Amino acid sequence: MVIDIFRKKLGFLNLIVDFFTKKNVGIILGGFILARVIAIGGTLLLNTQGAESTANDAAIQTIFTGESPLLIILLIGISAPIMEEIVFRGGIIGYWLAKFPIVAIAISSIVFGLIHGPTNLISFLIYGLMGLILSLACYKTQRLEISISIHFLNNIFAAIVIAFGMI
């Protein structure tokens, strides 16, 4: 009851309550788990070909070696998901979605996969399928912040691993 009173007086609480519905939280957690399964499965497949990680992951690890953990978390974990989702889901899907939803989702997923610099089919599939998860989450909910949240969870996990040398 107290929360309802504050919700009516302070509109921003409506946004918070409306965002954290069971459906949205389920999509966010499900998308994150699926993204991690794809990343782990893809990495295991890369290992069978003699690669330890994707070229994108290796480049990120090289670039950020010795950098401040806070900088790593801010750039990889927070800034990148927001910027990439605005471009790929907000821009590409937002532009094409009304008339061509399947085309919008496909283009967004493919370009997302390509922008991460795949050097082989497995790397492309890892990022392309992650792009597909993010695109479908955005399409299904019509909320960009859902795909941002999934992307954030995925990247923050990787950023913490890189920042604190857990690899």
TrEMBL record:
GO biological process: CAAX-box protein maturation
This protein's UniProt keywords: Membrane, Transmembrane, Transmembrane helix
Membrane-spanning segments: 25-46, 58-80, 92-115, 121-139, 146-166
Native source species: Enterococcus caccae ATCC BAA-1240
InterPro entries given in the database record: CAAX_protease, Rce1/LyrA-like_dom
Superkingdom, taxonomy of origin: Bacteria
Organism classification: Bacteria, Bacillati, Bacillota, Bacilli, Lactobacillales
Protein name: CAAX prenyl protease 2/Lysostaphin resistance protein A-like domain-containing protein
Stretches assigned to the CAAX prenyl protease 2/Lysostaphin resistance protein A-like domain: 68-157
GO MF, any single term: endopeptidase activity
UniProt entry tagged with the keyword Manganese: no
Pfam family, one: Rce1-like
Family label: Belongs to the UPF0177 family.
